[in-house]
Structure formats: structure tokens, C-alpha cells
Specification:
The chain is an all-alpha fold. It is built from 11 helices and no strands.
Length: about 220
């Protein structure tokens, strides 16, 4: 397992994702705190490398102690690459997050990721209440009739309800389209009267006697 490069972009999502993956590597290996810092710094590129070098120089110049632990390094990097309003924005997003046009599963993932990034530690009841509150009303109306011990059970039930509703909606549309086609076919079908057809056929025939007149003129 290797540590990914970090360029130092001003995107808190990019930094937090990099930090998360670095922690996976450190959890796998039993590195010392000094080695953790060195391994992370080695993967700094572009702006991140220049910024860190200058940061170390300034601390040495000011007589401050060097960074000795990974936790201290994370704190410093978060102060630089994660703005103070980032977590406020995440909390605000969570407060207004609803399913909208998303599937139930995508809505849940969006909520869960926002909670993780905001470092929110809701209890199970609060999380389930938050989840139900953002579901479409017709889905929420069904799932909230039951009690759930775990958020996963609630999620699976909501997905099931959404699929059933989609299936019923599709069946109704198919039935309506079929009945509508039959109705239009009946309305457009031409009903003919056999007597009128016969009458029309003979009404187009030449008057009796015309053929005889033509023959008599030819003989003359």
C-alpha cells in the first residue's frame, strides 16, 4: 500500500479524501510518528511541497518546535486546506437535504457522506429521523409506520417501498396506454353500410341506352 500524492489544491473534499487514504495506509503499517510525517511529506507535490517547506522554515526561524506527530500534522493541514466554513456548510446542507429526484439509496449515501465529512455523531434515532424527514412523502408515509432498531433496516425497507411504488406506477401506465389504444382504434374504425356500397357502385354506372346510341351511330 502506497500513499497518494497531494498537490495542495484548495478543495477541502480533495484534502480530506487524501487524509482518509493516508490513514488507511498508517493503520495497515506500524509506522513511528516520525516516519508517518516523512512518508506524507514525500508525497507532497506542486503547491503542497512548496507550502510545507516554507512552513517548516518559518517554524525553525521563530524558534518553534518541529511537528512530531501525525495528529499535529493533520491539525495544521486542516487549518490550511479546510476552511472554517466548510463544516458549517455541511451542517446546513444536511438540514436541507431531501431525496428529490434521487433514488432512496443515492439519497442515503449523500446524507451519510455529508455526516462523515461533518464529523457528526448522531445516535441511531436522530439519524433515522433525519433520513425519514428527507424521503419523498409517499415513501416516508409507509416506512414510518414501523419501528426500526437499525438504520440499515430502515434503508432496506425504504428501497423496497420505492421499488413497489415504481412497479405499480409502471403497471398503471401500461394498462392506460393499452386501453387508450383500443379506444382510439374503435373511434377511428369506419363502419360501412352494405346497401349504401351497392348503391354507390351502380350510381357511377353510365345511364342505360348510352351504349346502344353509340352502336347505332357507328352502323349508320
Amino acid at each position: 500500500m502506497s500513499i497518494l500524492a497531494f498537490q495542495g489544491k484548495n478543495d477541502p473534499k480533495v484534502y480530506l479524501e487524501w487524509e482518509r487514504k493516508v490513514e488507511h495506509v498508517f493503520d495497515y503499517h506500524n509506522y513511528s510518528e516520525e516516519k508517518k510525517i516523512k512518508l506524507a511529506v514525500v508525497e507532497f507535490t506542486d503547491y503542497a511541497s512548496i507550502w510545507w517547506d516554507q512552513f517548516v522554515i518559518n517554524r525553525r526561524r521563530n524558534g518553534e518546535r518541529p511537528i512530531c506527530t501525525w495528529e499535529d500534522m493533520k491539525s495544521i493541514m486542516r487549518r490550511r486546506f479546510v476552511p472554517s466554513h466548510y463544516h458549517r456548510d455541511l451542517h446546513r446542507k444536511l438540514q436541507s437535504l431531501t431525496q428529490g429526484s434521487m433514488s432512496v439509496e443515492d439519497y442515503y449515501k449523500e446524507m451519510e457522506i455529508a455526516m462523515i465529512r461533518a464529523n457528526m455523531e448522531d445516535d441511531h434515532e436522530a439519524t433515522m429521523t433525519r433520513f425519514i424527514g428527507g424521503l419523498k412523502k409517499e415513501i416516508a408515509g409507509v416506512v414510518e409506520l414501523q419501528h426500526y432498531m437499525e438504520i440499515e433496516n430502515l434503508l432496506h425497507k425504504a428501497i423496497q417501498v420505492a421499488r413497489q411504488m415504481k412497479s405499480k406506477s409502471s403497471f398503471k401506465f401500461t394498462s392506460y396506454s393499452s386501453s387508450s389504444w383500443r379506444s382510439n382504434w374503435k373511434n377511428n374504425k369506419v363502419v360501412t353500410n352494405p346497401k349504401e356500397d351497392v348503391k354507390a357502385k351502380y350510381s357511377n354506372a353510365p345511364p342505360k341506352g348510352v351504349k346502344e346510341l353509340d352502336i347505332s351511330l357507328f352502323n349508320a
